[in-house]
Amino acid sequence: MDANTAEQIVLRAVQSVFDQIGEPLPENLSAESVLVGPDAIIDSLGVVSLIVEIEQIVEAEHGVSVILANDKAMSAKNSPFRTVGVLAAHVIATIEEAKAA
Amino acid sequence: MTDAKKVMLITGTRKGIGRYLAEYYINQGYLVEGCSRKECDIDSPFYHHHFVDVADEKGVRTMVADIVKRHGRLDVVLNNAAIASMNHVLLTPAASANRMLEVNVTGTMLVCREAAKVMMRKRWGRIVNFTTIVAPIALAGEAVYAASKSAVVTFTRILAFELGQWGITCNSFGATPIMTDMIRGVPKEKVDEVVNGLAIKRLGTPEDCANVCDFFISPASDNITGQVIYLGGIT
């Protein structure tokens, strides 16, 4: 999966989370949009929904079953969920690991 | 919810209470998905069996993915699968304790986790996790088993808060002794001792279990969550 496809998956999932909570999508949503921490565009439960949504898109559209909140991700010094772009890179890495396993 | 048949996953359907509940809910109009580590001879077009050890993360994920692929939904989960080993704690091997914790606690968690991911989509779900009265009555000889089931109760209470926003209720249910394979090896005096300590002095029945599950999974029970019901007057 290329970086653009992964980023589009994350952005679609962000859109879905905002649809679920009934709030408008923030303006200027981009790879730099923050997902975790004080400047995050979603709260911690939103992150949970986002991760589940991405896992389901990846499985449904790309046929790969992944767990994004895996041991490696949860113990990383820098969260792989911190921005849209970083999360997209984590999606790619996790898919590659799943395919190699 | 639509009028289409609801899909229920029951773990540990090969025998005992799980098997009874599978047949009971097939007759109630559910599509029942069951699992166990060994073969199951339930023969119904409304039943599908998965060979899965609930403590196996990959196996649980594959099972739930298969349910979603065939039905597109999962409405109810009854986490019945468990193992017990009656043994004085001074004679309990670590491997035996670890296996009970793996199946009873981690297994329950894995099934809840994967099922909840599916239930979230429809913003509706019912989860019932099975515990036991031997935890609140502190039955000697069941220390690790009871501890694992106490963990299930605490897990379920917190799960209720974590999943409530998606319309998923999570409750637990502790039966009194029922004459299944799980307690067939327990000395009769021990079973009598437990029954004599109950408010209703009789063995439990699979029908008792179905009755409590019916209550928890009813659409009307959408404000019943984080609760534990023990049979026989135990609190």
Keywords, please?
heterodimer; A: mainly alpha; Non-ribosomal Peptide Synthetase Peptidyl Carrier Protein, Chain A; 59% helix; 0% strand; B: 235 residues; alpha/beta; Rossmann fold
What does this structure look like?
The complex is a heterodimer of chains A (101) and B (235). Chain A has one domain (3-100): Orthogonal Bundle (Non-ribosomal Peptide Synthetase Peptidyl Carrier Protein, Chain A). Chain A has helices at residues 3-21, 44-62, 71-75, 84-100. Chain A has 101 residues and is mostly helical. In chain A, helix 1 (3-21) packs across helix 4. Chain A contains four helices and no strands. Chain B is an alpha/beta fold. Chain B has one domain: NAD(P)-binding Rossmann-like Domain (Rossmann fold). Chain B contains seven helices and seven strands. Chain B has a seven-stranded parallel beta sheet, with helices on both faces. Chain B is globular. The two termini of chain B are 34 Å apart. The chains are: A mainly alpha (101), B alpha/beta (235). Chain A binds chain B through residues 45, 49, 52, 55-56, 59, 65, 67, and chain B through 61-62, 65, 117, 120-121, 165.
How would the global form of chain B be characterised?
globular
- Helix and strand succession of chain A? HHHH
Into which percent range does the helicity of residues of chain A fall? 55-70%
SS summary, helix count of chain B? 7
Low-confidence stretches of chain A: none
Q: Which word captures the global form of chain A? A: globular
User: In this structure, how is the largest beta sheet of chain A organized?
Assistant: none
- The share of residues in helices of chain B is 40-55%
Q: How much strand of chain A?
A: under 5%
Q: How many β strands of chain B by DSSP?
A: 7
Strand order of the largest sheet of chain B: 3-2-1-4-5-6-7
Task: Output the structural class of chain B.
Answer: alpha/beta
CATH superfamily of chain B: NAD(P)-binding Rossmann-like Domain
- State the order of secondary-structure elements of chain B, H for helix, E for strand: EHEEHEHEHEHHHE
Task: Determine and state the CATH class of chain A.
Answer: Mainly Alpha
Largest sheet of chain B: 7 strands, parallel
